[in-house]
Design brief:
about 325 residues; two-stranded antiparallel ribbon; globular; binds NADP nicotinamide-adenine-dinucleotide phosphate
């Protein structure tokens, strides 16, 4: 595993981070047991993963806490998040303080390394800064949390305007946002700000559905071509990203996707979610491979660099969707 400094936090993080939500929810979203989910976390740690990203709404804080007790609390960087709305209203300062305590209890730990506000919109920001940031600062001062950050709501913020508003304030120590082969907007919109302000970055939607569900990429590209957002030749292209897979390039589409994100300048943690230990091992191997060849990266930028919002859909699973 490779480890990098996480912005100005002083933390060193594994470049591969296990996402404990998304489609897979450590397997709980695929009908697997809590014991299977614990095994997945332990397998990730065995491969060198030290950052685990869960959330109040994922239903995996307990499982992660169980695994962390087996591993050793000081060996792990535990990240979790607070849901921002209750009964349709932005949460209050009191509710946020209660959520921090609830996460500590659910994970059976006395500190959280990275506490994040989950899916923050631009409309929330003024109130978040006035009412919730003081709670985060107090929790940090008391040692309940070590660092705090926030995540965007990618399906609802294709232009990443929320992060462009908040990052220059210097309040936030981390940002989680979307970046993928066909959604490269963060290169101009977000990374220059995270780099200027020493903000740790966690990349999400790197694969999600569009690069993992059979047929979805071809249909997506066809729709974009029909809408005039891609050249007409893409209307009938059975392998729109096939050019990435060759002897000195990627071994598969997923290999390309994870390598592309991991090597973007300013990227710290590339999140991946899975329910399968075999997928976990393959993804970590991809994240640790060298960058895609320069010619392939240029072609990706030239062909898809203008697109926004591709692959930012809600999870594909039977249960109620949660980001
Ligand atoms: N707003 C937010 O805060 C927010 C929103 C979205 C995501 N996130 C974070 O980002 C993490 C990752 O997000 P994501 O769910 O979009 O993960 P992802 O890594 O982009 O995509 C995971 C999907 O690809 C499949 N997959 C993974 N590895 C595979 C492989 N080697 N071969 C075939 N299929 C594979 C998974 O299914 P299998 O189970 O079959 O492997 C799953 O359906 C989340 O867990 C969460 O921590 C945060």
């Amino acid at each position: 595993m490779d480890y990098v400094p996480f912005g100005r936090t002083g933390l060193s993080v594994s470049v591969a981070g296990l996402g404990c939500g998304g489609n897979s929810q450590l397997g709980l979203g695929r009908g697997k047991s809590e014991a299977d989910a614990v095994r997945l976390v332990l397998a990730a740690f065995d491969e060198g993963v030290t950052l685990f990203d869960t959330a109040e709404v994922y239903g995996t804080e307990g499982v992660v806490g169980t695994a962390v007790r087996q591993i050793g609390r000081d060996k792990i960087i535990l990240a979790t998040k607070a849901r921002m709305r209750e009964c349709g209203n932005l949460i209050s300062a009191t509710q946020l303080a209660e959520k921090i305590d609830a996460s500590l209890k659910a994970m059976q730990t006395d500190y959280i390394d990275l506490y994040q506000l989950h899916a923050v919109t631009l409309a929330m920001v003024d109130q978040v800064e006035a009412e919730l940031v003081p709670v985060l600062q107090a929790a940090k001062a008391s040692g309940k949390i070590r660092h705090f950050g926030l995540t965007e709501t990618s399906p609802n913020d294709h232009d990443q305007v929320m992060l462009q508003r908040v990052l220059p304030t210097g309040l936030w120590e981390s940002a989680m946002f979307a970046f993928n082969l066909m959604n490269q907007g963060a290169r101009q919109a977000v990374f220059p700000l995270t780099q200027a302000h020493g903000v740790g970055t966690l990349l999400m939607f790197v694969v999600r559905n569009v690069f993992s569900q059979p047929g979805l990429l071809e249909q997506t590209v066809k729709d974009l071509a029909t809408a005039g957002q891609l050249p007409a030749a893409f209307t009938d292209d059975p392998e729109p990203l096939g050019f990435l897979i060759h002897e000195s390039g990627a071994t598969s589409l997923l290999d390309a996707a994870y390598r592309y994100a991991r090597h973007e300048p300013g990227a710290h943690v590339t999140l991946f979610g899975t329910s399968e230990i075999s997928h976990l091992k393959a993804n970590i191997a991809s994240i640790l491979r060298p960058p895609l060849p320069e010619a392939d990266r240029k072609r990706l930028e030239n062909t898809f660099g203008h697109l926004k919002g591709v692959g930012l859909d809600l999870p594909h699973r039977a249960k109620a969707p949660k980001q």
